[in-house]
Amino acid sequence: MGLFVILYFAFLIIASCLAAFYEKRGVFMMLFSLTLVSFILGIVGGAGALRFIAIAAAVLAFAAGISYAFKEFLVIIAPRNTSKELKTAPLTAAFGMFVIFTYAIAGIFAPWIAPHGESEVISSAFAPADANMLLGADQLGRDMFSRIIYGARNTVGLALLATLAAFLMGALAGLLAAVKGGWFDQFMGRFADVIMSIPSLIFALLMLSIFGPQIGVIIVAVAIIYAPRVFRLTRAVAGNVVVMDYIEAAKLRGEGDWYLIRKEILPNSTAPLVAEFGLEFCFVFLLVAGLSFLGLGIQPPTADWGSMVRENATLISFGDITPLIPAAAIALLTVAVNFVVDWMLWRSSGLKEQ
Amino acid sequence: MGDIASLILKRLGLGLITLLIISIIIFFMVELLPGDIAQAVLGQGATEENLAALREQMGLNDPAILRYFQWLGGALTGDFGESVVTGERVSAVISDRFVNTLFLAAYAAVIAVPFAITLGVIVALLRNTLFDRVANVLTLTSISSPEFFLGYILILYLAVKAQMFPAIASLSGDLSLGELLNRTFLPALTLVLVVTAHMMRMTRAAIINLLASPYIEMARLKGTPPWKVIVRHALPNAWAPIINVVALNLAYLITGVVLVEVVFVYPGIGQSLVDAVSKRDFPVVQACCLIFAATFILLNLAADVGAILTNPRLRHPK
Predict the structure, then answer these.
(1) Cα Rg of chain A (Å, integer)
(2) Comparing A166-180, B77-91, B142-156, which segment has the lowest mean pLDDT?
(3) A314 strand-pairing partners
(4) A262-285: per-residue pLDDT in tens?
(5) Shared domain check, A342 and A251
(6) Which value does ipTM take for this structure?
């Protein structure tokens, strides 16, 4: 039994005693059950398992701390109304916002942050990490770290553009369908049904096989695939607004469709639409990452997370985790957006009961 | 029972029409190709004679409508024409691989469905406890991870470091069932992780929705023991959403399988679709897309029919 194990258990027991003394029941239960679990794990897995738990707990505590600090920071710099809302945000949402903020910084300032260019060959293939290259080199000898930073700009930027395109198409069609009704509404509804009954990845592959993997084609394909979902939601939300009296009044005043959409319907349906934008971004991001993993996304030498995983996958069979970092970056951003969307949905709807 | 049969027939008819429209989309999408198929296959440097010969061989000189009906008729009898790259019959290439893919999906489904539904019900009963929170974060993480991320993590830890399962799922030679299950375990596990997360969340939502309804409250208030509330009152009404959840997630498996097959180099139809896309082998692409779309629609249809059978209210549409 090394010093680490003794310190580990001493810390857990003292912390749970303190929690019990100050009557923090939740904290106490968590700490004490962790202690009991650690006894068993310590016997089964030895000090290695305990070290793993300690590292995981430290990472969690670090994430929680940074999210809390970031939330307080946002509360202070935000204008009064927003900061009131922000105060109610759970830690997970704050964590999500922090991650999104970090990615945005990395993406926008990529050329200044990355030590090397994205397609600059500076060393031999699969060179190990050193002081010059934080994460080593990829299969052509380019700096992995710089490519990951540039990937934040390319991959996320592409997903964002595609989501925007899908959203504009879907929301516009949904609003028009709600205002116009009649055959236009019917036709768009059936059309959306047909598109949604083709699996998204398959449809994307079909379109890319025909028009070739160019960025413009990817954006249009993704927009066509995901616009129907946005259409359905917008149609449902706007459908509830269109029957209101103030819409009737505006129609009687002789306002046109465009005015109704812009001034009456949109302001009353922003909350669900913003949340949907987040969800939609997650779907699009995963689809685009999947496509580029299959070699049909952004074409080399532009840095892109999905294809980076594929190109360096051989390293995995040597037990190296570097190729997984871009994949983890994809997962982290999706989780972060989901956290924020969860909070927004919870805030704007009746999900509070759950 | 008569109206149930007619209702189901109506759904089936609707499904068939959707499939027909999709086949039209898949076929005529290729017609949108700048130039035509012959041009795309042979590339820029093709001579006029070569182009003409290939057009003649593929029957491209017929009008598109005629070719569509020929293609559709062939597809219905299992004949998808010839690959333009290798010249083999598409059906010969695909049929074995389709069986492999179905095997992988079935393997994953057999593990995932009971597991996910049990966990989903447990999480719904324990809602708002620490266990529920942890499960929520874990399933969210699993949903948010791309399939290839999960696949490579499993390869790294279970195949490379622990050496428990093979990293590459090659199915060559005669394999006993045990060997087969062992070799395909990692791809199946990847699919299980993704699908379980989806299914658990949906089951949880469905059960919680149900537990909030007044008749459950009534059963509780009259003093029914908790297990009886679940088994006698909640479960009969929960079948409809659960069947729905299962069918929808099996449909989700169909797309998830493409990426997983590529990660594990599994000889399935998803892999041949991806290969065909990068080689621009259109007959294979069309055949694979049609098969995937048909399976997807079939499973969605099964969800609808299951919902009708278990929920009497749906038998009398307003």
Answers:
(1) 25
(2) B77-91
(3) none
(4) 888 888 888 888 888 888 899 999
(5) yes
(6) 0.86
> Cβ distance B35 to B54 under 8 Å?
no
In whole angstroms, what is the distance from residue A153 CA to residue A143 CA? 16
Rounded-to-integer distance, Cα A201 and Cα A203, Å? 5
Host domain of residue A153: 144-348
User: Could you tell me if A282 and A224 are in contact, meaning their C-beta atoms sit under 8 angstroms apart?
Assistant: no
Mean of pLDDT values over A64-90: 85
- Mean per-residue pLDDT over chain B, rounded: 83
- B25 and A198: CB-CB below 8 Å? yes
| Cα angle for residues B158, A136, A108 (degrees, 5° grid) | 105
Rounded to an integer, the average pLDDT of B74-103 is: 82
Within a domain: A211? yes
- B157, amino acid identity: Y
Number of domains in chain A: 2
Q: Look at B292 and A316 and tell me if their CB atoms are within 8 Å.
A: no
Question: Given an 8 Å threshold on Cβ–Cβ distance, is B285 in contact with A194?
Answer: no
What confidence category does residue A353 fall into, taking pLDDT thresholds of 50, 70 and 90?
very low
Check if the beta carbon of residue B74 is closer than 8 Å to that of residue B80: yes
Interatomic CA distance for residues A327 and B147, integer angstroms: 10
The three-state secondary structure class of B89 is strand
Same-domain status, A38 and A150: no
Q: Can you name the residues that pair with B89 across neighbouring β-strands?
A: B82
Convert the pLDDT of each residue in A115-133 to its tens digit: 887 777 777 777 777 777 7
Looking at the complex, report in whole angstroms how far the Cα of residue B182 sits from the nearest Cα belonging to chain A. Answer: 19
Last residue of a domain, one of A22, A45, A69: A69
**Chain A residues 16-35 within an 8 A CB cutoff of chain B:** 26, 29-30
Q: Within the 204-233 window of chain A, which residues sit less than 8 Å (CB to CB) from chain B?
A: 205-211
In a domain, A321, yes or no: yes
Q: Give the chain B residue whose CA is nearest to the CA of A342.
A: B140
- Asked which of A43, A69, A95 is the last residue of a domain, the reply is A69
Q: Each residue of A295-346: pLDDT tens digit?
A: 888 887 788 888 888 888 888 878 788 888 889 999 999 999 988 888 888 7
A56 and A163 share one domain? no
CA B180 to chain centre: 21
What residues of chain A lie within 8 A of the CB of B251, using their CB? 199
Q: Assign residue A194 the CATH number of its domain.
A: 1.10.3720.10
DSSP 8-state secondary structure symbol assigned to residue A299: P
Do the chains contact at B33 and A210, CB–CB below 8 Å?
yes
Asked if A37 has any chain B CB less than 8 Å from its own CB, the reply is: no
Question: Is residue A63 one of the residues assigned to a domain?
Answer: yes
- Tell which phi-psi region holds residue A212, choosing left (phi > 0), alpha (psi between -120 and 50) or beta: left
Is the pLDDT at A165 greater than 90, yes or no? yes
